[in-house]
Amino acid sequence: MKRVLSMLLVFALLLGTGGCQSAKDASGQYRLSKDGEAILTGDEFQNAQVSEDNYRVFYEIFVGSFSDSDGDGVGDLKGILNRMDYLNDGDPASGLSLGVEGLWLSPIFKSQSYHKYDVNDYYAIDPAFGTMDDLQALVDECHSRNVKVILDLPINHTGPLNQWFGNFTRAHREGNTSDEWYDFYCYYHDGEAAPTGRRFNRLSGTSDWYECNFSDDMPELNFDSEAVRQAVLDVAEYYLDLGVDGFRFDAAKYIYFGDNARSSDFWQWYIGELKAQYPEIYTVAEVWDADSVTDAYYPALNCFNFTISQTGGLIAETAKKGNVNVYTSYVDQYLDEIHALNPDAMIVPFIANHDTDRAAGYLTVASWQMQMAANLYILSSGSPFLYYGEELGMRGSRGGSNTDANRRLAMLWGDGDTVRDPVGADYAAENQTTATVESLKGDGNSLLSYYKKLIMIRNANPEISRGDYTALNVTDSKVGGFIARWNGSAVCVIHNTTLSKKTIDLSQLTSEQFTTLAAVIGQEDATLDGTLLTIGSMTSVVLR
């Protein structure tokens, strides 16, 4: 654990103007294009650079709900391709596009469900989403703009119409134990004791029961089978050869249900095999559990951090006038923990995704809680993921209907896009934000522009995401931050989540000289006079 530095909070008004820097919050610094779109022009992010590594901001797209190119109401791959200028126009300092440098696509493989997590053919794009040529075109266009593409790959289970499961069923009906497909899925026979804590369903036409912990329509593969291991390895290699940059692995801890040790061993083998051929592969696992559990998987691959996400996570708690020091101290400790397990490990933060209620439902834009939450996880270490529509303040929750479809609602373009809400969604329209991309794009002070600016500030200060992280402990205050050192340079990021202006003496922070107020983003302004930093409420700064 790195030593947590102590910093004395000084409650004093900043007197005099001699030598005082002021970096006005540039949320209002913009001009309009000929098409009426806000172009951000602040000096503090005009040196934004493209990322050459995996420390980049990703954007999760629930494909069927994003953008519809053919008028059938279902989002598709061409729809994403058509929206690339919105996502990333190829110029990191243009001030026009959102500026994300990675896309996570929800499952695109052939499936009978709207969500596609029950794959029936890993080698076919679901017709509702397009074709393999459409995927290739999207990948090629993304790469031309320095955007990586990762696919959501659910290999813990398949769909019931998958030919693998058909072959398994046939072998069991024939009682042919020598058939290569007989042990492809997990099962037990009548008369045997069912494994405890797991769910099984009768295999039609047999005296056997197949494992299906998530749903009857999601039979579980048997990873003790070498044939299964080779099959899922072949799938990943197929898409990597096509040009895909990596994968988000669904339900990673359920490879061996209830056995994290065996599951993590599998991932070390699997990722090891892939990295031997594709050393730059981007991989992240969904291990929805406490840090003590995700630690078991970090020797193999990065994991989403659930401790800081969602309604009760540290990001939301901090953004709601919470103590920044608690958050930054946690990040510091977590980074030390995972680096001890894997020197190349990254923290992968987020506030919401397709399986959680949307953040704008519990972090309001008017209170600046939503903006501060974004500051906390995007101006931080690692590779953050934002969920499509987060930048608009979209809302959505399971609600009384208890359906995840309400968390995966149609993107609000406002320009005639025909994409519709997924099957089963019934989220009340009056509870949704009235904002759309069309209504916000001409407003340099909108949440959309805020996210654009935030990502550009991050990309203009590469130390933030890549640097050696040292948390600051601001005594007697909720103001807090960290220093990040990388390639011989350092930046200091400080957040004020309180509702009042604060002044701190940087000379109490470190012997390093932070003399430049490189960026300010938030509700108010900030100034730097010598070593005295005055920072407005619900505001963050980057010092160099």
How would you explain this protein's 3D organization?
24% of the residues lie in helices and 19% in strands. It is built from 13 helices and 24 strands. The strands form 6 sheets. Strands 15-14-13-9-6-5-16 form a 7-stranded parallel beta sheet, with helices on one face. It has a 6-stranded mixed beta sheet with strand order 1-17-18-19-24-21. The chain has a 4-stranded antiparallel beta sheet with strand order 2-22-23-20, with no helix packed on it. Mean pLDDT is 93; it is low at 1-19 and 22-27.
**Major sheet description:** 7 strands, parallel
Order of adjacent strands in the largest pleated sheet:
15-14-13-9-6-5-16
Strand residues, percent: 15-25%
Helix content: 10-25%
Summarize the structure.
By secondary structure, the chain is an alpha/beta fold. The chain has helices at 77-82, 84-87, 132-144, 163-174, 226-242, 260-277, 291-294, 314-319, 324-341, 369-378, 437-440, 447-460, 463-466; strands at residues 5-8, 20-22, 30-32, 38-40, 58-61, 102-105, 109-110, 121-125, 148-153, 187-189, 200-202, 208-211, 246-249, 282-285, 302-303, 385-387, 468-475, 480-486, 489-496, 502-505, 517-522, 526-529, 532-535, 539-543. The radius of gyration is 24 Å and the shape is globular.
Secondary structure: elements and pairs:
Layout: E1 5-8, E2 20-22, E3 30-32, E4 38-40, E5 58-61, H1 77-82, H2 84-87, E6 102-105, E7 109-110, E8 121-125, H3 132-144, E9 148-153, H4 163-174, E10 187-189, E11 200-202, E12 208-211, H5 226-242, E13 246-249, H6 260-277, E14 282-285, H7 291-294, E15 302-303, H8 314-319, H9 324-341, H10 369-378, E16 385-387, H11 437-440, H12 447-460, H13 463-466, E17 468-475, E18 480-486, E19 489-496, E20 502-505, E21 517-522, E22 526-529, E23 532-535, E24 539-543
Helix pairs in contact: 10-12
